[in-house]
């Protein structure tokens, strides 16, 4: 960047990083790109990363270019079955993925559980907390957060609406 080159090559620069560091550096690259308007050729095997960072994506297989296009074109109008397979086979995103990405708060869930025990009415109990498994889908988390400010999980973990929105923005 200091040499103000027309093109910068980045060959899997974030592949060995933890999710939080990876996201922070992706944000930095996006900011630098917008500030400098420099072309960055970014090599990655992570399709989510390609979609998040790329203005144009080239999908290669065995050294042959399969398709080039905007992220929306690649994902909605794949040129062939091979390109489509990069997006169909994505693993299910769970609440654990939100936690692994660092979008949560440590909480003293015992206080909330004690408060819940004091509430006799089940309606009040549901308004105070939702205990769910980390293996639940993020769709379930989104559903719960439409009516609650936060969701408490075992292991003193609490995910707030703000945490969840930040996680979605990072994808």
Largest sheet: 4 strands, mixed
* Radius of gyration, CA atoms, in whole angstroms: 21 Å
Please give the number of β-strands: 8
Shape: globular
Helix percentage range? 40-55%
Order of helices and strands: EHEHEEHHHEHHEHEEH
- Secondary structure category: alpha/beta
List low-pLDDT spans. 119-129
Enumerate how many helices there are, as a single number: 9
- This entry's quaternary arrangement is single chain
The proportion of strand residues reads 15-25%
Please state the average pLDDT score: 78
Task: Give the CA-CA distance, first to last residue.
Answer: 25 Å
Strand arrangement within the widest β-sheet reads: 5-8-7-6
Provide structural commentary:
This protein is of the alpha/beta class. It is 47% helix and 19% strand. It is built from nine helices and eight strands. The strands form three sheets. Strands 5-8-7-6 form a four-stranded mixed beta sheet. The longest helix is centred in the first third of the chain and has 18 residues, at 19-36.
Provide tags for this entry:
four-stranded mixed β-sheet; single chain; two-stranded parallel sheet; 171 residues; alpha/beta; 19% strand
What's the structural blueprint in terms of helices and strands?
Blueprint: E1 7-11, H1 19-36, E2 39-43, H2 47-53, E3 57-61, E4 64-69, H3 71-76, H4 81-88, H5 95-100, E5 105-106, H6 109-118, H7 122-128, E6 131-132, H8 138-145, E7 150-153, E8 157-160, H9 161-170
Parallel strand pairs: 1-2, 6-7
Antiparallel strand pairs: 3-4, 5-8, 7-8
């Amino acid at each position: 960047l200091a040499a103000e080159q027309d093109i910068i090559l980045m060959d899997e620069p974030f592949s060995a990083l933890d999710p939080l560091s990876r996201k922070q550096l992706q944000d930095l690259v996006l900011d630098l790109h917008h500030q400098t308007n420099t072309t960055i050729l970014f090599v990655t095997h992570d399709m989510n990363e390609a979609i998040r960072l790329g203005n144009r994506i080239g999908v290669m297989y065995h050294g042959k270019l399969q398709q080039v296009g905007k992220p929306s074109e690649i994902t909605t109008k794949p040129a062939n079955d091979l390109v489509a397979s990069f997006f169909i086979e994505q693993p299910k995103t769970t609440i654990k993925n939100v936690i692994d990405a660092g979008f949560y708060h440590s909480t003293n869930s015992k206080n909330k559980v004690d408060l819940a025990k004091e509430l006799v009415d089940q309606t009040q109990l549901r308004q105070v907390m939702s205990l769910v498994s980390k293996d639940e889908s993020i769709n379930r988390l989104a559903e719960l957060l439409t009516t609650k400010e936060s969701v408490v999980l075992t292991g003193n973990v609490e995910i707030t609406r703000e945490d969840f929105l930040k996680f979605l923005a990072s994808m």
